[in-house]
Design a protein that fits this description.
The complex is a heterodimer. Chain A is mainly alpha-helical. Chain A contains two helices and no strands. Chain B is mostly helical. In chain B, about 30% of the residues are buried. Chains A and B meet through helix 2 of A and helix 4 and helix 5 of B.
């Protein structure tokens, strides 16, 4: 019984608590372009530091 | 030596022309056709695009991808292996070559077979068509995303050599 008090049995609806679901950036054109620019920056850092 | 230069010059020329067609059509699909089809579906005019425009655009799109890759490989010539192994100063162009290769794979393995189901070129149920629509869409968007770093690394001129300390 003591243990039970620490473990709520009621399911918590995280969406109701304001938590947002993650969306796929590729579903929007802006998300796609921004993802491409970010990937470019990551690859430039990789190329500058790890490629001969 | 002159023959080698001629092959390189022709390969670069063909690589650029086919690449413009490939990426141009990719941008047409993503920036124009997706939104246009949504609106056309609402007023019942989508068939004009799906029957007459999309199949023709896809024909040039997928074969331009092949020609671009082959001309790029010919342009790399003896440096092909160095580029794909990202060594001997060929790292930046190698990254571009890898991105282009992944995009070619997406075109022929993910986009084209699923587009055939969507356009009714191969038989598919409504559920299969819906699944194919999502896969083709995400593969096409992935290629649009990959085209951004691909074009950056492909434009491997003097500015880039300085950037990468080559």
């Amino acid at each position: 019984m003591i243990l039970a008090r620490g473990y709520p049995t009621k399911m918590v609806n995280y969406l109701e608590m304001g938590e947002r679901t993650m969306k796929n950036p590729l579903d929007s054109l802006w998300g796609t372009v921004i993802a491409g620019v970010v990937l470019t920056a990551v690859l430039v850092v990789f190329a500058r530091n790890f490629l001969g | 030596m002159e023959n080698i230069n001629l092959v390189a010059a022709l390969s670069r020329w063909i690589h650029f022309m086919a690449g413009v067609m490939w990426i141009g059509l990719l941008y047409y699909f993503n920036f124009v056709q997706v939104a246009a089809l949504k609106n056309a579906g609402a007023d019942g005019t989508a068939a004009g695009i799906t029957k007459h425009v999309a199949p023709r655009a896809l024909l040039f799109f997928r074969w331009a991808a092949v020609v671009t890759w082959l001309a790029g490989a010919a342009l790399l010539g003896p440096l092909f292996v160095d580029a794909f192994l990202l060594r001997n100063g060929m790292g930046p162009i190698g990254i571009g070559a890898w991105l282009g290769t992944i995009m070619l794979f997406n075109v022929w393995v993910l986009i084209w077979p699923n587009q055939k189901k969507i356009l009714g070129m191969t038989p598919a149920s409504d559920d299969e068509k819906n699944a194919a629509r999502r896969v083709a869409f995400l593969a096409s968007r992935t290629n649009t995303m990959l085209s951004i770093p691909m074009l950056f690394f492909m434009a491997n001129g003097w500015s880039h050599r300085a950037l990468f300390g080559l």
